[in-house]
What does this fold into?
Amino acid sequence: MAGMAMREIRTIPDPVLRTPCDEITKVDDRVRSLVADLVETVDHEGRAGLAANQIGVSLRAFSWNIDDEIGYVLNPRIVELSEDEYQDGDEGCLSVPNLWYPTTRAWYAKVVGTDLDGGTVEVEGTELMARCLQHECDHLDGMLYLDRLDRSVRKKAMKELRAQL
It folds into this structure.
């Protein structure tokens, strides 16, 4: 894709991270450029997913980089989560650097959205992919993984975060 660029990651307390993103109603050059930047920026070691607002664009789109597969989805919505199987494990975020905390997520997730041509995109997976899909959809709703932490753990995380700022 022409015009790809590695974009700077916005970090907390940037207000764009707490703002719900707008639906993409028209695929134009701006959206094509956004997707190219999302794909380029997620394509680095240690990056599992990247939401548009993490690079300062309040549109509903994210990219992923899981098990050597890189992709993107526009206007994603979670359509299915495992209701009786969960995973616990440390979760981190590019927008909350150097902090990893145990976060409970559904073990399986399925997201539906579109691609740049208006075709349907279905992305599903378990474990890391499921965690990524849930994490990135949270971003698009203006939510950080810290918001999902148990109260006592969240208190500790916020204290550690304040010490970094």
